[in-house]
């Protein structure tokens, strides 16, 4: 069964006391509410453990924003899947466009991280999305297809069905410019079709495909009403408890 997942990617924001404040506020905002979606938050690494202890008896699940593909070793500044598991992460965001464009992560590296996450029972939230140039020169679907094919490379169907996909058009991230619900739906349906070809129609139908890129309380409902949009990966609007709550409650 396809699950709605609303995830908040905090990016490089909130120090420890601010993180504790935000998660406490969010818990209060969600208390007693009828919540249908799975709620996931991805604070920065150094706040994961403190946040985990605060969300223990709540509906909120924990995600990291990135990890390395190796078990351990001489990788200064990196964090392993086992480390994330040890602080209570259930999810990990992989292949975010900021990782791809600013830090040069390749499709191959992202694929190796996906395999490592699955091996360690972390659910990968795998991001894909085209740049403004690619949208304007008509190559959106080629880009998405190659990112998705690379992400699924070498996965068994059993592994593939554990993935969560996030479609995040780069031109919509942090810009206030959202893809229209129709534009997003078109790409989501395409992603599902590609995945059906790589796995089975049943697996593709069961996968959660989130939309990300300037999701706000006032556009979430319309986006989420589309048949292939099964959640949201939220940046800016997850940094305030009340706006994130409103997005969660729009499912
Ligand atoms: P914004 O919601 O700030 O556009 O960020 C989206 C995003 O990149 C989530 O991963």
Describe the protein's architecture and organization.
Strand 7, helix 11 (217-224) and strand 8 form a beta-alpha-beta unit. The protein has an 8-stranded parallel beta barrel, surrounded by 6 helices. It is globular. The chain starts with a strand and ends with a helix. The longest helix is centred in the last third of the chain and has 18 residues, at 181-198. The model has no long low-confidence stretch (mean pLDDT 97). The chain has 251 residues and is α/β, with parallel strands linked by helices. It has helices at 16-30, 48-55, 81-86, 97-102, 107-119, 132-136, 140-152, 157-160, 181-198, 201-206, 217-224, 241-248; strands spanning 5-9, 38-42, 60-64, 91-94, 123-128, 164-167, 208-212, 231-234. It contains 12 helices and 8 strands. It has one domain: TIM Barrel (Alpha-Beta Barrel), CATH 3.20.20. The structure holds 1,3-dihydroxyacetonephosphate. Residues 9, 96, 168, 173-174, 212-215, 233-237 line the site of 1,3-dihydroxyacetonephosphate.
Q: How do you describe this structure in short?
A:
By secondary structure, this protein is an alpha/beta fold. 44% of the residues lie in helices and 15% in strands. It contains twelve helices and eight strands.
